[in-house]
Amino acid sequence: MSDRKKALALIQASLDSLARSGTIKNEIAVDDETVLMGSGADSGLDSLGFVNFVMDLEDRLMQETGRDCAIVLTDIEGFDINSPTLTAGILADHMTGLTG
Amino acid sequence: MADRAPSETETQKPVAVITGTSRGLGRALAEHFLARGHAVAGCSRGEGTIDHEAYHHTVVDIREETEVQAWARALRREFGGVDLLIGNAGLARSALYLAMTPGDVFDDFLRVNFAGVFFTLREFSKLMLRRPDARVITISSTMVPLHQEGTSCYAATKAAVEEMTKVLARELAPQGITCNVIAPAMMDTEASRELAKDGDWKERMLEKQTIPRVIGMDEICHVADFFVSPLAGAVTGQVVYVGLVD
Description:
- The structure holds two protein chains of two kinds.
- Chain A has a single domain, classed as Orthogonal Bundle (Non-ribosomal Peptide Synthetase Peptidyl Carrier Protein, Chain A).
- Chain A is 48% helix and 5% strand.
- Chain A contains three helices and two strands, in the order αβαβα.
- In chain A, α1 packs across α2.
- Chain A is globular, with a radius of gyration of 12 Å.
- In chain B, α2 links the parallel β1 (15-19) and β2 (39-44).
- Chain B has helices at residues 8-11, 24-35, 65-79, 103-126, 143-146, 152-172, 190-196, 201-208, 217-228, and strands at residues 15-19, 39-44, 55-59, 84-87, 135-139, 178-184, 239-242.
- Chain B has nine helices and seven strands, in the order αβαββαβαβααβαααβ.
């Protein structure tokens, strides 16, 4: 996926879907600074919710690109497993690189 | 990778993933769940030995993280999700007293019985999140509570599997997924026949069991049926020792 906006749109669509299914309580308007995971997270995702989110996002990426896409947290530049904070912007950059 | 794509009928069946299906208990469990109408995806380090229209074999070495990941991705594409996971593949072989056990034997047990089960649980539990009433079963052994001499590596890795399953049971409970352990006493497998070549090993082991006889594969399948049944939805994080009072 070469379009970063499209990556952010997929993140938005995924979070909307999780909100509809009740996995997260409120709908979230995604921008670059939205914290998906870590302290002060805006997403309302607990650990299992985050796994659900990643799985849903991988499915959407696969539909979009027609290819296998695995989001591996430790492969994301700027993500520190010892101090894990992930913003939508960082994830969108990773998705763009992953599929571009 | 899997030998063929599932048919439309198969994709409507509950999907069971079972490791170590080329022989022994894994093969018996695969045949059992095939007979109960599941599509079964099995693996082993060698070619498959089950010929059934709803059986899909993949050559996987569960010690290798990337192989387990690739297998899980392929099954995700083919089936979409998993309803039942049985982490059966394991190493059981003659071992010496701890003081005499070589490091490579210790490492083999760790890689197959512990790391392999960890990779399997991690990759496939993710594919179960959207399947209501999904079930995870792992296989331990009565050697854990028996603390039998010569099983320091084997029993320690099986104890680790029990603990890992209990933690996973807590983590997946909000999704309605149960995780339980079956720990059989002596069964008639290639591994136990190999061990039985060592003098009176079989008799000594049977003496330690509360039910002092060889446990049938069908008896283990029966316990698995219980864990899989819809009415067992509140039974999670449990270890059933078959043939032994712990």
